[in-house]
């Protein structure tokens, strides 16, 4: 029969316009869903933030993560944090502001934002499988001083479904880095969150404005719908 080969592409309903993704060339990138940002006593709270603002992103990410696992999509988790000796933590980052605890200080979940500590790990609801990739990053962007670019090249990835926290900080920085490197980014609107709801809204608007200057924005429902089509 002609045209019997299954298409590996489908269309995501997105803004500023629908986007067709080739699923084998697409990865799910989950940014910094760590206890340090989402739970009391971590880095986010030391900065004076209400960490409950981020809770709404967990379920939508969980739904997309489950679908990604079901379809065999490449899943990459990132974690922001520093080496125990702080050699990768710029003084400008450690010394800024007047937090209740600074990066490296002992807190209720271990040393703040330090690799290997309980607070640095990913929340139990979204915990990576052994088969999934975890990228440790010292900065906001997931490409800066990490192996992410090499990993994406190795797996032939051209498109990224991006979610995580926070919308205007690590998600936006990573999407901008990815955009400059030629990746199509679809940001999952309800799979991102900020301590500042208005920054979340603006962070998404900045991505999709001007014809999608940095990428596309879609709901988790829209992404899941398109992923369903990709497997039928
Ligand atoms: N403070 C804040 O909004 N974010 C961060 O410090 N890192 C991430 O966004 N992951």
From TrEMBL:
Stored Pfam families: Isochorismatase
GO molecular function: hydrolase activity
Keyword Disulfide bond: no
Matches recorded under InterPro entries: Isochorismatase-like_dom (IPR000868), Isochorismatase-like_hydrls (IPR050272), Isochorismatase-like_sf (IPR036380)
Residue ranges of domain Isochorismatase-like in the record: 26-213
PANTHER family registered for this protein in UniProt: FAMILY HYDROLASE, PUTATIVE (AFU_ORTHOLOGUE AFUA_2G08700)-RELATED, PEROXYUREIDOACRYLATE/UREIDOACRYLATE AMIDOHYDROLASE-RELATED
Name recorded for this polypeptide: Isochorismatase
Species assigned in the record: Bradyrhizobium forestalis
Taxon lineage: Bacteria, Pseudomonadati, Pseudomonadota, Alphaproteobacteria, Hyphomicrobiales
